[in-house]
Amino acid sequence: MGLWRFLFVVVFFLLPDAVPLKIKAYFNETADLPCPFTNSQNLSMSELVVFWQNQEMSVLYELYLGKEKPDNVNRKYMGRTSFDWENWTLRLHNIQIKDQGSYQCFIHHKKPKGMILIYQMNSDLSVLANFSQPEIIEISNVTENLYRNLTCSSIQGYPEPKKMSFWLKTENSTTLYDGVMQKSQDNVTELYNVSISLSVSLPDVTSNMTIICVLQTEPMKTELFSSPFYIDPKDPQLEPPDYTVGIAIAITLTLAIGILPILGYIRWRKKKKKQPGISNERGESVFVLPADCHFAAISQSAAF
């Protein structure tokens, strides 16, 4: 940056009546940085030097005597700007959170003896990102302690929201629950993700309950509402579990396990009694002795 440009910047910041123009732009969209110069002298572009710079004096765009001069443009703005000649407006595309801050435009008339500042303007750019609609999710089923655990989350917003809460509505009342808002910020985009948790005691639910999550954003101070989450006290899952069926099944299985061995033994005994032998002429059963008992059997017969 030349010395003349630095001097102009210093003088500009020292002016007491230099009220900045407030500008808002949305993340990943386009910001218009105006420099509404009234060309009352009908000067040609070939006589003017026009440029924009940020608060760190990095050049966004320069038009030198009617020709664009990219050599002086900071690399983080390369390919991100376009100049509207008719409206004297610089458009900054693909807006990021880090782009918010102060910007200045300068217009100089180049004469043979030097350049004269004929117009200047300061703008303050704020960047916004819309949070997603809050969403309520049940993070677990009914617990042994008869609680329903809910979480509400909203993502990808900027700036940091002011407040997040639950509204618990019944037939007779509305209760506001302000829990601790958990937040995280992306290291690259700088956008925020936020969430809040709630545990509902089911024994305390005596009538239909509607739960809504509300996110209050800044600086627009708008409220984003989730879809309603309903709890019905007549829902079977809200009642204590019925163990009758389980107990009956357990008793049946126990009896079955105990009776089966007894039935098996009785069956084995019956089968053993029906085992056939060898009959003699009088119909008496004769059992076959082992081979080593043969002679003993003959001797016993002779004795008779």
Give a description of the structure:
The protein has 304 residues and is of the alpha+beta class. The chain is built from 3 helices and 20 strands. The strands form 5 sheets. It has a 6-stranded mixed β-sheet, with no helix packed on it. Strands 12, 13, 16, 17 and 18 form a 5-stranded antiparallel β-sheet that branches. A 4-stranded antiparallel β-sheet has the order 10-11-15-14, with no helix packed on it. The longest helix is centred in the C-terminal third of the chain and has 30 residues, at 244-273. It starts with a helix and ends with a helix.
Shape: elongated
Helical content (DSSP H or I, runs of 4+): 10-25%
Task: Describe the main β-sheet briefly.
Answer: 6 strands, mixed
What is the SS-derived class? alpha+beta
Strand order of the largest sheet: 1-9-8-3-4-5
Average residue pLDDT? 81
Count the DSSP helices: 3
Instruction: Write down how many β-strands occur, each being a DSSP E stretch of 2 or more residues.
Output: 20
Q: Specify Rg, calculated over alpha carbons.
A: 45 Å
Oligomer: single chain
